[in-house]
Amino acid sequence: MTSVVETVSEIVQPIVDDFQFELVDIEFVREGKNWFLRVYIDKPTGIDLEDCALVSEKISEKMDAMNPDPIPQAYFLEVSSPGAERPLKKEEDYTNAIGEFIHISLYESVDGEKAYEGTLKEVTEDTLILAVRIKTRVKEIEFDRKKIAKARLAIQF
Fold it and tell me: Which domain holds residue 27?
């Protein structure tokens, strides 16, 4: 059985492609009593409110015309930019983030920590190397990509 995110992705991808935008991520989450379908889009020059409104309108039209409804329960549709802390999902996201400051969350701790922030130095199919500041020095740490739960760009203060 396919998930809501997989089903919606098949519907949304051609719409986003028509506008020559990038589909960054889709979430279907429950918050309190409400369900939210969140679609994150981007383009090289950045997404604005008009872009989000256009894509939202097209997604709504397409989803409303489908029978059976791919999401039978009530939900709120949100289309937005991934923001400054854009998630790293695809291989291209990681490659484009080399040299950038990122945050990673791990499934299991490494050196007693389950989250790290640092500059992404290198990415391979199996590992990534982060330059992490530990007190006054910078240490390069290699992480097994299978142990990374989530990764995103981060803002360095």
Answer: 4-80
pLDDT band at 4 (very low <50, low <70, confident <90, very high): confident
Question: Are both 62 and 96 inside the same structural domain?
Answer: no
> Is there a single domain that holds both residue 101 and residue 74?
no
> Which residue do the tokens 């889709």 mark?
26
Which residue in 133, 131, 143, 134 sits closest to 107, CA to CA? 143
Q: Is the pLDDT of residue 19 over 80?
A: yes
Radius of gyration of the chain (CA): 18
- Look up the pTM and report it: 0.81
Alpha-carbon distance of 17 to 1, in angstroms, equals 26
For the chain, the distance separating the N- and C-terminal CA atoms, rounded to the nearest angstrom, is 44
